[in-house]
Design a protein that fits this description.
130 residues; alpha/beta; 2,3-Dihydroxybiphenyl 1,2-Dioxygenase, domain 1; 2 domains; four-stranded mixed β-sheet; three-stranded mixed β-sheet; 2 helices
Length: 130
């Protein structure tokens, strides 16, 4: 008796983007576009997608009742964050601060990575280990 089953077709799934909720998609897209050198791939009043066509991107979605994360205070936890690889922590931090990032008061391991907050308050990290 033949117990094998015919192969079924598996639909292709690919990573397309990570999307962040925020109060102002254009403002946050401008920050990350400048920081990462990504072009705007799509833009509407309520959504902006950064990235080259066919490549994974970053999306920014307007949320009317958006609440900024309060990291490290757990009142409004971060839900996700980006890890960005850099060659020089000090130089990258200075550039990102000039673009509008904010340095929080807490830095868990500043010799290994730095935590910054984007203009909408999302924590993100820069590290030389990525």
């Amino acid at each position: 008796m033949n117990t094998s089953t015919p192969e079924t077709s598996v639909p292709a799934v690919r990573f397309a983007a990570v999307t962040f909720d925020c109060p102002d998609p254009a403002e946050l897209a401008h920050f990350y576009g400048q920081a990462l050198g990504l072009p705007v791939g799509y833009e509407s009043e309520d959504f902006v997608l950064l990235g080259e066509e066919g490549a994974p991107g970053l999306g920014f979605n307007r949320l009317a009742d958006y609440r900024r994360p309060t990291w490290p205070d757990p009142v409004q936890e971060k839900q996700a964050h980006l890890e960005l690889g850099v060659d020089d922590l000090d130089a990258a931090q200075a550039r990102l601060l000039a673009l509008g990032a904010v340095e929080p008061g807490s830095q868990p391991q500043p010799d290994r990575w730095r935590v910054l907050l984007d203009p909408a308050g999302h924590p993100f990290c820069i590290t030389t280990f990525a």
